Amino acid sequence: MEKFQTLHTTGRPLPLENIDTDQIIPARFLKATTREGFGENLFCDWRYNADGSPKADFVLNDARYTGSILVAGKNFGCGSSREHAAWALYDAGFRTVISSYFADIFRGNALNTGLLPLQVSDEVLARLLAAIEENPQLELVVDLPSQTLAVPAWGETFSFAIDGYKKECLINGYDDIDFLVNQKSAIEAFEKQRAWTW
Amino acid sequence: MPSTLFDKIWDAHVVRSIEGLDVVYIDRHLIHEVTSPQAFDEIAARNLPLFRPSQILATADHNVPTLHQDQPIQEPLSRLQVEKLTENCEKYGIELYGLGHPRQGIVHIIGPELGLTQPGLTMVCGDSHTSTHGAFGAVAFGIGTSQVAQVMASQCLLLSRPKRMRISVEGELRPGVTAKDLILYVISQLGTGGATGHFVEYAGSAVRSLSMEGRMTICNMSIEMGARGGLIAPDATTFAYVEGRPFAPKSAAWNDAVAYWQTLYSDADATFETEYTYQAADITPMITYGTNPGMGIPLTGHVPSEVPASEAESFDKSLKYMGFERGESLLGKQIDYVFIGSCTNARIEDLRAVAAYVQGKQKADHVAAFIVPGSKQVEQQAIAEGIDKIFAAAGFELREPGCSACLAMNEDKIPAGKYCVATSNRNFEGRQGPGSRTLLASPLVAAITAVQGRIVDITQYLN
What sections of the protein cross the membrane (chain A) (predicted)? Predict the structure, then answer.
């Protein structure tokens, strides 16, 4: 996993609520056996017509928006547990998704992929979506060590929450496997004392 | 200190805690062909052994064809995924119930029917409907592929403890109202993100009176309101279902197990962060009209006319996709397809309910009706009971087991623009194929819709 520290970029607005992982990456693309290459089919059915031509009105096809932050409506990533959704966003160049809340499994998958799920209030989300649509060049600055999202044009900085352990993992590019494998003796001791053996 | 059912099981599985996170021991790990290959690659790249391969069970279900399973899979990418699963299971010594095996089937159908799913266990799978196993009083939940690799490497996950929610449904369900209607009703009340961050315990007399199959349908759809998982306290119904199944404890171990399982309930004064209570009498047969499972209404109801301004854009996009209008009734709408299957409703009880209704009747000419059993065992049971002949006579096609048109990874797709009444769990845009329009309902509603060819008030058509 790549390290994540700070991000100076612009946002791409997708102001729909309850965006499910079937939209992020439809099931028919889950037949790959590696993690790479999902980006070209990110939001496939919203992004392309049936003949493969791009839909002009979809945000990823709008040349005005170029940043690596997706700003999306609340309850982002609901539905299927497919980690391919986080891989597709990452593969397409996104490093952060801002929403006013995330589905639990997607949040965990994003953190395990190096993609930061950044939760703001409904009010801040609405302001961001409106401001980005008005000015696609609106600068956004994510600083993970200080857990802040800054909007320099507004002169405002917002704090966001992230679990302390997962923050360290993201900053250093660590994942949970090494940590868990190092718990081997504690896990074996646990197995010996557990009450159920059937 | 009083404790919830969830906390009793969770606490019994905490190896150690660190910075507010728990290292949680996983008893059973189910894997399938679609979310495991990258996890096996991760393990191989790090040159790690599998920590407890005997606690992993594999099956092929998500992308397999539901016709001609005795022949090689035609679709090259699906075949490759199934072959990879087979190779990996051989390499690491994992039990695999692949295509053609008498125990093959949808991962959440075979766990319970084999007796692998038991009260008090922790169970995971790279599939969000793993919550199904919670019906037995297990803590079961879906995980991503990185976590699949973590469990393979350590039999543990590093997790934050979710909040607890209790949803009680009291009283007796009306005629024609099933477990599916109950859970579609609850999701319509809470919305598709209403239980995010929570683990849900289902309680109340209406839940207690359900069969294990009905309880599995309810726990299965916990994720559709955003819950980490759902569970129901085990009782005599649970024990009777588990006893005698291939992986159930035997003889003395059985008695020990039941004695332990009888301690698994929420203490009277245990606290839940969130509680809801509903009355069974308020629930009528349900159907969804939109593109998430929270968009459900009574069959005789109307699509909402008003929604909060912040939701209007998503709501109208959804109705446009479905071809419906604000405020309209769905009664009389013509249906093109009926799909009876999935980990939500493809158990033998579901097939029996459909057969009991369609016996001696015919599906409408314009409807394509197909039934995909949840497992090889369900299929064989249906044949043994003669249900297959009832389906054939009524014009319903009985396929071979798999996830099929629930997520349309295989050839079983609903064409663009067509309406499908489905017993599965998701009505997202394109879920059953690009442009497909899905209406979620119970097996009974699906059966009656197939015969009538349109959406009707099923209470007028009950046998």
Answer: none
Instruction: Identify the closest residue of chain B to A29 by CA–CA distance.
Output: B409
Q: pLDDT in tens for each of the 198 residues of chain A?
A: 899 999 999 999 999 999 999 999 999 999 999 999 999 999 999 999 999 999 999 999 999 999 999 999 999 999 999 999 999 999 999 999 999 999 999 999 999 999 999 999 999 999 999 999 999 999 999 999 999 999 999 999 999 999 999 999 999 999 899 999 999 999 999 999 987 666
8 Å CB contact of B15 and A164: no
Distance from CA of A175 to the nearest CA of B (A): 9
Chain B residue with the nearest C-alpha to that of A112:
B146
| Most B CBs within 10 Å, among A42, A170, A180, to test the B interface | A180
B395 backbone φψ class: left, alpha, beta (φ>0; ψ -120 to 50): left
The structural domains of chain B, ordered by start, are 5-274 (3.30.499.10), 288-457 (3.30.499.10)
What's the distance, Cα to Cα, between the start and end of chain A in Å? Answer: 38
3-class DSSP assignment, residue A140: strand
Question: Inter-chain contact B310–A75, Cβ cutoff 8 Å?
Answer: no
Please report where in the chains the tokens 């449904």 appear, as a residue: B169
Least CB-CB distance to A83: which of B146, B157, B160? B146
DSSP helix/strand/coil, A37: coil
pTM over 0.95: yes
Judge contact between B287 and B445, C-beta under 8 A.
Answer: yes
Chain A residue at shortest CA distance from B253: A198
- Provide CB contacts within 8 A for B55, sequence distance 6+: B26, B27, B28, B29, B155
pLDDT along chain B (463 residues), means of 10: 96 94 97 97 97 97 96 94 98 97 98 98 98 98 98 98 98 98 98 97 98 98 98 98 97 95 97 98 98 98 95 96 98 98 98 98 98 98 98 98 96 97 98 98 98 98 90
Chain B residues with beta carbon closer than 8 angstroms to that of A78: 192-193, 226, 292
Q: Write the DSSP assignment of B329-373 as a string of letters.
A: B-TT-B--EEEE-TTTS-SHHHHHHHHHHHTT----TT-EEEE--
Interface test with A, best of B9, B38, B315 (most A CBs within 10 A): B38
In DSSP terms, B145 is beta-bridged to: none
Answer yes or no: is B420 a known binding residue.
Answer: no
What are the DSSP calls for B112-171, one per residue? HHTT---TT-EEEESSGGGGGGGGGT-EEEE--HHHHHHHHHHSEEEEPPPEEEEEEEES
ipTM confidence score: 0.96
Is there a contact between B123 and B133 (Cβ–Cβ < 8 Å)? yes
The closest CB to that of B196, out of A23, A86, A103, belongs to A103
- CB contacts, 8 Å: A104 with chain B: 162, 196-197, 226, 228
For each of the domains in chain A, give its residue range(s) and CATH number, in order of start.
Answer: 6-189 (3.20.19.10)
